[in-house]
UniProtKB/TrEMBL annotation, chain B:
Family label: Belongs to the binding-protein-dependent transport system permease family. CysTW subfamily.
Membrane topology: Multi-pass membrane protein
Gene Ontology BP terms: phosphate ion transmembrane transport
Locations listed in the record: Cell membrane
UniProt-listed PANTHER family: ABC TRANSPORTER PERMEASE PROTEIN YQGI-RELATED, PHOSPHATE TRANSPORT SYSTEM PERMEASE PROTEIN PSTA-RELATED
Gene3D superfamilies recorded: MetI-like
Annotated GO CC locations: plasma membrane
Protein name in the entry: Phosphate transport system permease protein PstA
Membrane-spanning segments: 12-34, 66-88, 100-123, 129-149, 181-202, 261-280
TrEMBL record, chain C:
Domain spans labelled ABC transporter: 6-247
Protein name: Phosphate import ATP-binding protein PstB 1
PROSITE patterns for this protein: ABC_TRANSPORTER_1 (PS00211), ABC_TRANSPORTER_2 (PS50893)
Subcellular location: Cell inner membrane
Superkingdom field: Bacteria
GO molecular function, one term: ATP hydrolysis activity
Length: 300, 295, 252
């Protein structure tokens, strides 16, 4: 019965089913193709400075002198790699206690006030564009540091300060989700034993949610690592490893942002910038896998 | 120290830190609005920027940002819906689906500057679209697509299984079920998410530096023929957006009133994003009401 | 003479490792109501859902054995599920009208199945609502949202919706258990009415309801069918002690 009758209609809905399947598959194929071509293009471009232009990998990763226009040109990217790691790690370090306390406040201490005041504040911070963070950093944070510390105020700490606010929403929302997902029996057990709130939080709640909290920190750091314009505006952009937190320096993203427009496609000066982009890309993979690893631990 | 004292101190610290977060938000918003609002006028919003003299506006940039947003959404929404529907309804659990999920996750964590570089290489150079709104829209699509996929998946996941079953049991095809029964119910979630994503697109700059470009031709706002080079509607002209303008003014602005322009433009940007957030909440609530109030 | 429209033979359903329905053979005839009773988790709903292949939606469900409608095995890979489900209506425990108008809820199915003529659709909507004893209550507000109806009305609307695509068989999964007693009684009346035209299979927890509405009753326990027979006989004189215990309320 269901197989035989009325063959015209059979065709129509089967065709329709195929159309749906094909349309949606095309979208996902496009997405997958995009990402693979992205990796492919950046990788071929980035590797060409090694294979075509003969820059040595050791110089790139270990050299501290960046003089692309020099005679001979030097391509030591270590200052940028250092700058990227230093700013993003410091940003995560500043942001972690703030965001975890914010999450504890919203879930454990005053959920009502948290939902009314803190939650919207964090959503708002999440919506502010990065150039605005950069602008505020440049007009508030940098002068502030300049006034109380020696130096120009530009540098790693200025960058990290701006980034720490930018990544605050990411980290807080992940920490909040993790705390909310905690079975209430766990806390009640601790309270029943006569533990104070802080004892419960520090001995039970935080250790159990630690992998999830770490996920938030790593995701925040990943975002800080890849952020370009806000950092570029406050970091100073000098191509060397700084002696202090208040000395002008650069990150991978800031160099790319500043130099990409001033070099010609296909030249060695341009290719090395793609190599820096490739490093960014590889770091993204590292961050994603760390997050996955932490998530697996969180489930267990 | 007794456990009680420690508890009190710890609680105090937590509340203090939470307070700091709120203070940061208030300070940030207050600073931008106080510095910027005074500079916003009809003239500022409509006149073109000046390079070395003061008194420049952000008219073309504001228009570019809005136009680029529309272009981006036109491309992103259908693609994101399609890919999201595939992931939530057609993908069979298993290795392939897991790896696609991983790929989407990786794409969503790519730095936007790298997305911009990819756009420069592929859209601007290889495909020959040049520094243009269209290249910018494509780059923003790449940047935004994973989010759109996730929003669609969330929206479809919010549809009660009973609705899907009811439709299938009536003998409707899966595709028809998705289109006519599930998507309308998922609409509030999808729409809210899309508007929030639009806010993110509106403020994005790094992906646009090398795709939509850092300059804008002198626009002729009387010429609405999308094929003429001076027309605001021409998608193949370079277009500096508001966010890019803020960056440019700050890093290489020569106009004497550059800080004021940056402040004014930042305030406009923030207010627009705020507007998007409020709109998202409003639309979400209205649609929710339409579906449930009559119960 | 019973007119068998659907029969299962040696049907097994697995959810992953769980053997949810064990080697079940049953016949269903038109103009009859068959009640499936048993404690929660006994496999009666799973069995019901396999009859219109709703278990396809569950990723790790696996089915062996036969379900025949006419001379066709519905689990055959070539079977067109869309056409199959058109012939088998389904009603759930909780009313699940579409988030559309009352009219659209009914017209949605028939329109998809090729009826475009507005007058024809109007007729179907009216006759389906009449059969579901809902016409008088809704005829003046067909364009209102289906969600504006009461729970009991919604459930009758869902029944009307399934009738509208003119099925041969209607599957009901505890159709009255989420309703108040008055609405529940109305649904029972409706089942008695619909019996004139359709083959009805109903899963129920409510023993009195099974006794009132059904002609045949099957008692399920832990995935197995313990006893099957005419409803009168099952309720007055069950052969199996477990059936007796369940019916007299000793467990379940």
């Amino acid at each position: 019965m269901a197989r035989s009758n009325d063959s015209r209609r059979v065709k129509q809905h089967i065709i329709e089913e195929w159309i749906g399947k094909i349309l949606t598959s095309l979208c996902i194929v496009l997405l997958v193709v995009t990402i693979f071509s992205m990796v492919y293009f950046v990788a071929t471009k980035g590797l060409s400075s090694f294979f075509k232009n003969g820059v040595s990998l050791a110089e790139m990763l270990g050299g501290t002198s960046w003089k692309p226009e020099g005679e001979p040109p030097m391509f030591g990217a270590l200052p940028f790699i250092f700058g990227s790691f230093a700013t993003s790690m410091l940003a995560a370090l500043i942001s972690a206690p703030l965001s975890i306390c914010g999450a504890l406040f919203m879930v454990e201490i005053m959920p009502k006030l948290g939902k009314k005041v803190l939650q919207p504040a964090i959503e708002l911070l999440a919506g502010i564009p990065s150039v605005v963070y950069g602008f505020v950093g440049l007009s508030v944070i940098v002068p502030f540091y300049r006034n109380i510390f020696p130096g120009q105020g530009l540098g790693i700490l200025a960058g990290a300060s701006v980034l720490s606010v930018m990544i605050l929403p990411t980290m807080t929302s992940i920490a909040t989700d993790a705390l909310r997902a905690l079975p209430s029996g766990l806390k009640e057990g601790s309270y029943a034993l006569g533990a104070t709130r802080w004892q419960t939080l520090s001995r039970t709640v935080i250790p159990t949610t630690l992998p999830a909290l770490m996920t938030g920190v790593v995701l925040g750091m990943a975002r800080a690592f890849g952020e370009a314009l806000a950092v570029q505006m406050v970091i100073g952009n000098a191509p060397h490893i700084p002696n202090s937190l208040f000395q002008s320096t650069s990150t991978l993203t800031s160099v790319i942002t500043l130099s990409m427009g001033n070099t010609v496609m296909g030249t060695i000066q341009n290719n090395v910038l793609w190599t820096l982009a490739l490093i960014l890309l590889l770091m993204t993979f590292v961050f994603v896998f760390v997050v996955r690893w932490l998530e697996r631990r969180a489930i267990r | 120290m007794s456990a009680k004292t420690v508890d009190k101190i710890a609680t105090g610290v937590i509340i203090l830190f939470a307070g700091i977060i709120v203070l940061i938000m208030v300070g940030l918003l207050g600073f931008i609005l106080v510095r910027g609002l005074g500079h916003i006028s009809f003239d500022f919003l409509t006149s073109p920027p000046e390079t070395i003299r003061e008194g420049g506006g952000i008219g073309p940039q504001l228009f570019n940002s809005l136009f680029l947003l529309v272009l981006t959404l036109i491309i992103t929404v259908p693609l994101g819906l399609g890919a999201g529907i595939y992931m939530s309804q057609y993908a069979k659990p298993g290795r392939v689906t897991d790896s696609i999920r991983l790929i989407v996750e990786v794409l969503s964590s790519f730095p936007s500057i790298v997305v911009g570089l990819f756009g420069l290489l592929v859209f601007v150079n290889t495909f020959g679209f040049g520094f243009s709104l269209f290249s910018g829209a494509l780059a923003l699509t790449v940047f935004n697509l994973p989010l759109m996929v996730r929003i669609t998946e969330q929206g479809l996941a919010s549809v009660p299984l009973a609705q899907k079953e009811a439709s299938l049991a009536l003998g409707l095809s899966k595709w028809k079920t998705i289109r006519s029964v599930m998507l309308p119910i998922a609409l509030p979630v999808i729409l809210t998410g899309t508007i929030l994503a639009a806010g993110r697109v509106f403020g994005e700059a790094a992906a646009l530096l090398f795709t939509a470009g850092m300059s804008s031709p002198r626009l002729d706002f009387t010429d609405w023929n999308p094929f003429s080079p001076m027309s605001p509607l021409n998608p193949f002209r370079p277009a500096e957006t508001l966010a890019v303008h803020i960056w440019k003014v700050n890093s290489e602005g020569l106009a004497p009133d550059a800080p004021e322009i940056a402040a004014g433009a930042s305030a406009v940007l923030i207010l627009t994003v705020l507007l998007f957030n409020l709109l998202a909440r409003f639309v979400g609530r209205q649609l929710q009401k339409k579906f449930t109030a009559s119960r | 003479m019973r007119n068998i429209v659907m029969s299962t033979k040696d049907l097994n359903v697995f959810y992953g490792e769980k053997h949810a329905v064990k080697s079940l053979s049953l016949d269903f005839a038109t103009k009859e109501v068959t009640a499936l009773i048993g404690p929660s988790g006994c496999g009666k709903s799973t069995f019901l859902r396999s009859l219109n292949r709703m278990n396809d939606l569950i990723a790790d469900a696996r089915i062996t054995g036969e379900i025949r409608i006419g001379d066709e095995d519905i689990n055959h890979p070539k079977t067109d599920v869309v056409l199959l489900r058109q012939k088998i209506g389904m009603v759930w425990q909780r009313p699940n009208p579409f988030h559309k108008s009352i009219y659209e809820n009914i017209a949605f199915g028939p329109r998809y199945h090729g009826i475009r003529d507005k007058r024809k659709l109007d007729e179907i909507v009216e006759s389906s609502l009449r059969k579901a004893a809902l016409w008088e209550e809704t005829k003046d507000r067909l364009n209102r949202s289906a969600l504006s109806l009461s729970g009991g009305q919604q459930q009758r609307l869902c029944i009307a919706r399934s009738i509208a695509v003119s099925p041969d068989i209607i599957l009901m999964d505890e159709p009255a258990s989420a309703l108040d007693p008055v609405s529940s009684a109305k649904v029972e009346e409706l089942i008695a009415e619909l019996k004139q035209e359709y083959c009805i299979v109903i899963v129920t927890h409510n023993m009195q309801q099974a006794a009132r509405v059904s002609d045949y009753t099957a008692f399920f326990l832990m995935g197995e069918m313990v006893e099957y027979g005419a409803t009168d006989q099952i309720f007055t004189n069950p052969e199996d002690k477990r059936t007796h215990d369940y019916i007299s309320g000793r467990f379940g």
